[in-house]
Amino acid sequence: MSYAFADGKFAAAALAIGICVLGSTVSGAFAESGDIRIAHVYSKTGPLESFAKQNHDGLMMGLAYATEGTMKVAGKNIVMIEKDDQGKPDVGKAALATAYGDDKADIAVGPTASGVAMAMTGVPEEYKKILLFENAVADALTGVKWNKYLFRTIRSSSQDAIANAIALDGDNVNIATLAQDSAYGKDGVKAFREALKKAKVVHQEFLPSDTTDFTAGGQRIIDKLKDLQGRKVIFIVWAGTNNPFKIADLDLKRYDIHMATLVTDLPTLTHFKKLPGMEGATYYYYGIPKNPINDAFVKMNYEKSGGPPDFFVAAGFTAGLALVEALKRTNGDVSTEKLISAMEGMTFDTPKGKMTFRKEDHQALQSMYQFEIVDNPAVTWGVPRLVREITADEMQLPIRNKR
Q: Which of 34, 156, 305, 317 is the most buried (most CB within 10 A)?
């Protein structure tokens, strides 16, 4: 379904966002019977606060956009309930239970971190309410931890990894991986290896997430790659503020070793300004998709914040679109079984184009983008130039749950 959103309705959308936030601040005190109550459980405070704020801003913009500024579906008001998980699994689990139980939330969205999400998975099953993951990527959330109340609009670790495998695979290609010693890093490397058809992984390097000096790990990788024939690539799977791309300073060019990665946020892209030619595959970069929804989304974000949207904003925005589409299909009915029936197999439009919730595990199947970094003097970051769109059909994402 496509949404019309004329330029003149941006002010209405902004007003709707403000009203919805007001309603959440007073814990729904102004809510009327028949309202649609959505809880957003996210890291309002804690180490991921800046990412979480972008998720929330995006969610609010997505709801406003999809309702054409009214914040209503089928005549029912959307009331937003905000909960702070502080980036802590136990706090997030308790906050979600409170949102469902005390605040009578019909649906929940969040959280920011995969570790918090993993602690939450049993709560929707207990309360028989939907939880939509808009930022947590761990494979287990649609795999071993999955239940029928869990849906995900953000890509999974496997989608990241498989897209990058497709982008980098080829005959006579030797790859060393550098990743965080965490579920995120290990899941990503495992899925990446499984998806390769021709290239060979010759070394895996896992480092603590708080690593700041990558010299030793980088040198071990170089030693494994430097004497090999063919194309030599270091594939990096990393999330956070530390900069593993410093290994470029170890004179990789001397050994004709290239770096590749999945693109994350705009601050990370600043590290790539001096790395033109680096390649990989990414979930979203605001300049890549060419469609009316992305155009409107980018414009909304410029008007709200004065700059382009990062992928965290896009993730929240997409979750908002998915929720409104599902609610339109139920004519505003928030009963969980009807929502599940509407959402399973549902195709909906997003800034990336169409996504579909796969019936088997509720993962949103979506395209990814193969890119090459170019240096655009007009911006302070390395720009991912689109090489090609990698479709969901090409990725053949494995089903990892036991439904």
A: 317
